[in-house]
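Continued from yesterday's entry.
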Amino acid sequence: MPLKGITKEGDKCVIGASATVTDLDESPLMQEYFPRLKQYIKLVSSTPIRNIATIAGNFINASPIGDLTIFFLALNATVVLSDGKENRELLLRNLYKGYKILDKRPEEFIEKIWFQLPDKNTLFHFEKVSKRTCLDIASVNSAISITSKNDIIENAFLSAGGVGPIPLFLEKTADFLKGKNVNEESLEGAIEIAQTEITPISDVRGSEEYKRLLLGQLIKAHFLSLGIVEEVET
């Protein structure tokens, strides 16, 4: 496939490593499966940067607050690494071993990314808080993909940025949600567990306490925006 292609292969979306943020934004396939995509993309930098910034570049940069990394972590995306001769697949969440430390040999590069397209029972949401609503790096960002049926959560993937040395996949929180009823109690339990998975530090984008509070608010925003729960206390 072309390095900038965004295609559907069975129930998967396959994205070439050189696809830009703008390519993602303008993809009919992505727009079909993610109706709020343009709303999310507006939170990612500025138009000139979106025109040249690639998805794979965002991953390899390994910023703890990379917007696209957080977006695709919640889709449980897989990266395909190549050394020019052989390929290997790696869950995006396993690419990050420490601050700016990757499970990638020097000769390897990302060839493509793929993820399972959401079905009718799956909802996705991305949130970001920064000093400027747009054009700024995040203080904290987060995304969720949640599958429920008959008010029971069957599967969940939750990510968070700005609250640790790497882009975080909140595995314990996601596991907690599986099998739970869709209600405020499950939401509050998820927030409590998420707090045990993060290690934010105080910096120019906010104090540790502020970032912890923000993540809790973003998780609430996910549930509220997707209509999973009605208004809850803040």
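--- second protein ---
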Amino acid sequence: MLEIKNLHVSVDGKEILKGVNLKLEKGSVHVLMGPNGSGKSTLANVIMGHPKYSVTSGQIVLNGEDITTLGPDERAKKGLFLSFQYPHEISGVTINNFLRTALNNLRKEKINVMEFQKLLKDKLQLLHIPENFAERYLNAGFSGGEKKKSEILQLAILNPRVAILDETDSGLDIDALRAVSEGINTLMDPEKEILIITHYKRILEYITPDKLSIMIDGRIVLEGDKELVDQLEEKGYGWIEKE
């Protein structure tokens, strides 16, 4: 279980997160929503250990261990994964080589080339992605949908215990959104926890959350189930702020 306890975070002396409390349960899909500037992406980056952000108080606890001061690589080795809102392009590095290097850095015993190629082929088929996709340079010249598929393929290969998906649905057309959502549903199992950060209801037409949290002005102000999304769709965030 991943638990955020009374987390306060500042950037350049300005407080962004103002006492966030959040629990992700094993086997669950948790959705975090909120208006622009509420602190959702900041929370994702802080959980992953981005050095830009300063934790002034509070804890990030993974399976009972305080990981608040650990570096991003150490957190990744403990099973954390972040899918970026805007994935970087890395020309000259194929997805194939990138993923095998990343996987070997997570494992005690290195996977050989033949074993990795079988694993990669299986995951590409599972996600309905063409095999030649893995021979392309990482995100170089990719469409928005292809970048998000690349992130989901990374999720499939690295097989983290906790996956944080930061606005995976942004900029996707209907077909790409459906494909990415199906990939997430396919990869979910009772041992994983997934946190989906989004502005919109549309991804929740394909993925059913177990819990929904609303963040406004650096705090979790309301929690509920999927029915809460319908209220947001009807009333917007203004009614929560008034309450």
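The chain is about 35% helix and 30% strand. The CA atoms of residues 100 and 112 lie 9 Å apart. Will compare against the first tomorrow.
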